[in-house]
Specification:
Blueprint lengths: L1 E9 L28 E2 L1 H9 L6 E6 L2 E6 L4 H6 L16 E3 L2 E9 L5 E5 L1 H11 L15 E4 L9 E4 L2 E5 L5 H8 L10 H4 E3 L2 H10 L2 E5 L15 E5 L5 E8 L7 H14 L3 E3 L10 E6 L1
Parallel strand pairs: 7-11, 8-10
Antiparallel strand pairs: 1-14, 1-16, 2-6, 3-4, 5-14, 6-7, 6-14, 8-11, 9-10, 12-13, 15-16
Length: 297
């Protein structure tokens, strides 16, 4: 199997919902159960990618209904598979493309100096090392306490310390400039390039706290046209991952007969370039949520 890393940098807040909740947040985002880190499920990401090949769909009558199915022999069929249809002489088979879930690598947090910083942690960096095959020397960052951090520059330091939200961190004397430079190459968005001066590494516990508590929560309403007030039952709180969050996912492809894996990943890269490497992911497209810069590395 051949694989590449797909980086997903949010241009606007993103909401991939986990369904209704009985807590204070009516519509939370999807998270890993054990770490509480926000994720984009592989099924959601694969659906967004498949929509790029809508020109490869055709209307087919099945079970007295008109359905949109992938054309036989098309690129969409090669990448995403096919369903059995006797009229078109097609069989069930899986496509070449394998799409993993996207996890947060770097999360934007308010900073007392420099406006904001991107935080990450040893766990997130180790996962990237494993998935991308990189060497980031994460072992140097082990042993950070809850009130310690490591910074890539003085951009977010205030009198020698870093203040994120209401928390104050002492800077450990460790150099992560090379690591920050490598992470900057993960995405093509010009805003992300500032990670070289804004990167802050905190320990796993603090990272988990921030990604759970520092997401945006907005109140959504619907106005009754007759009364001009909020319609009954139409007020709810929605959680959103903030803009400038960096996710990454593993994109893989399997060799098939007369269809090398490299060709499948090349087709994805070509299609992403055709849309200027911008995808809309998650819900609420019409109100500007979920627009992301994506880069295939």
């Amino acid at each position: 199997m051949k694989k590449q890393i797909l980086s997903i940098f949010t241009r606007t807040p993103l909401h991939v919902g986990a369904g209704n909740s009985v807590g204070a947040i009516d519509s939370p985002v999807m998270r890993e159960r054990h770490t509480r880190i926000p994720i984009i499920p592989g099924s959601s990401l694969k659906g967004v990618l498949a929509d790029l090949w809508n020109e490869d769909l055709e209307e087919v009558k099945r079970n007295d209904k008109i359905e949109l199915l992938r054309k036989k022999g098309s690129t969409a069929e090669q990448l995403f598979g096919q369903v059995k249809d006797e009229k078109r002489d097609t069989q069930d088979f899986a496509g070449q493309l394998l799409v993993g879930e996207a996890r947060v690598l770097a999360f934007p947090v308010r900073s007392a100096k420099g406006s904001f910083a991107w935080i990450t942690c040893p766990l997130a960096l180790r996962r990237l090392e494993r998935d991308a095959g990189w060497k980031l020397d994460v072992e140097r960052l082990d042993g950070l306490t809850e009130d310690q951090c490591v910074t890539a520059s003085d951009e977010v330091k205030l009198t020698g310390q870093v203040v994120l939200e209401e928390y104050q961190f002492t800077c450990a004397a460790k150099d992560i400039c090379e690591m920050a430079e490598k992470l900057a190459g993960l995405g093509s968005d010009p805003v992300w390039k500032e990670v070289e001066s804004r990167l802050v590494v905190v320990n796993d516990e603090m990272f988990t706290y921030f990604v759970e508590q520092a997401c945006e929560v907005v109140s959504r309403i619907r106005i009754d046209d007759k009364t001009g007030t909020v319609a009954q039952g139409a007020l709810f709180n929605q959680e959103q991952v903030p803009s400038e969050t960096m996710f990454y996912a593993v994109l893989g492809a399997q060799d098939q007969k007369n269809a090398p894996a490299a060709d499948a990943l090349g087709a994805v890269a070509e299609k992403l370039n055709s849309v200027d490497c911008v995808l809309q992911i998650g819900g609420d497209e019409t109100i500007g949520l979920g627009y992301c810069t994506v880069t295939l590395n």
